[in-house]
Amino acid sequence: QVQLVQSGGGLVQAGGSLTLFCAASGNWYSRILMGWYRQPPGKERELVAGIGQTGNPLYADSVKGRFTISRDDSRGTLELQMTNLKPEDTAVYYCNSRPNVGWNGEDGFWGRGAQVTVSP
Fold it and tell me: I want to staple 36 with a disulfide (CB 3.0 to 4.6 A). Which of 48, 62, 78, 96 is the partner?
């Protein structure tokens, strides 16, 4: 079992920055993959950025060059640094932890989510 506690989010103007935080604890096998997913209003939840325990990051095309994901397993933390935010980034952002099962689908464990709203 894995426990995920999120912090961060809020309201920001377009072009601004925010950082999301996630503290993870529990079975290390279920924390091989960690990532951030988001669910815009009226849309399905989608992967924003992911990172494995080997430190290999991946990003959705829509956020490449603007978002940076990082993890510190010695502290059990996961971060998402978001810069140059756009109104289309508005969504509820979720921290996720899962075993080595790939990024697709609703696998693993989920944080409560944090609202990020980007105004024009």
Answer: 48
SS3 of 31-99: HCEEEEEEECCCCCCEEEEEEECCCCEEECCCCCCCEEEEEECCCCEEEEEECCCCHHHCEEEEEEEEC
Whether 34 contacts 101, CB under 8 Å: no
Summarize pLDDT for 28-39 with one digit per residue, the tens: 999 999 999 999
**Cα 59 to Cα 63: distance, rounded to the nearest angstrom:** 7
pLDDT digits (tens, 9 = 90+) for 46-70: 999 999 999 999 999 999 999 999 9
Distance of CA 69 to the CA centre of its chain: 8
> In degrees rounded to 5, what are phi and psi of residue 82?
-115, 125
Alpha-carbon Rg for the chain in angstroms = 13
Q: Do the beta carbons of residue 66 and residue 82 sit within 8 Å?
A: yes
C-beta of residue 50 within 8 angstroms of C-beta of residue 29: no
